[in-house]
Write a structure and sequence with these properties.
This protein has 4 helices and 5 strands, in the order E-E-E-H-E-H-E-H-H. It is an alpha/beta fold and about 130 residues long. The protein has a domain of about 60 residues. The model has no long low-confidence stretch (mean pLDDT about 85).
Length: about 130
């Protein structure tokens, strides 16, 4: 697994998280102002040798895109020139971060990224310990 960046785009702020080098654990990293986020994301991608950026996909309870997804896709398109981009459901990530007592946008980004990492790593042979 490659090193990943998680991104949770909000109305005013953008939460950012990063995975460990092995792509197994997500850590909150930063909260950016949305108007400056593309340049800052591109800097983080280059500085941290990021291979994949995971954006939170904002859907309503019926599975339809929320209005903010237009802006999320614009930001994703801007970074797609540098790295692979994927989308992961962000439903309830902010609420989950709040329940954990953290509540920051970076924590919500870490929850989104961890969800992606867990799905990618599920069932990999190297994750299974054999005691024989």
């Amino acid at each position: 697994m490659q090193k990943c960046l998680g991104v949770d785009v909000g109305q005013e702020r953008v939460g950012v998280s990063v995975s460990d080098d092995g792509g197994t654990v997500a850590f909150p990293l930063a909260v950016l102002q949305r108007r400056e986020c593309v340049a800052q994301l591109l800097t983080l991608i280059a500085e941290r040798d990021i291979a994949v950026v995971v954006f939170g996909e904002s859907l309503d309870l019926d599975g339809e895109e929320n209005p903010i997804m237009t802006e999320v896709r614009d930001i994703a398109d801007a970074v797609r020139e540098q790295v692979a981009v994927v989308f992961e459901s962000e439903q309830f990530s902010t609420q989950a971060a709040s329940r954990l007592g953290k509540g920051s946008d970076a924590e919500a980004a870490a929850i989104i990224l961890q969800s992606y990492l867990d799905r990618q790593n599920r069932g990999k042979k190297e994750d299974i310990i054999n005691f024989d």
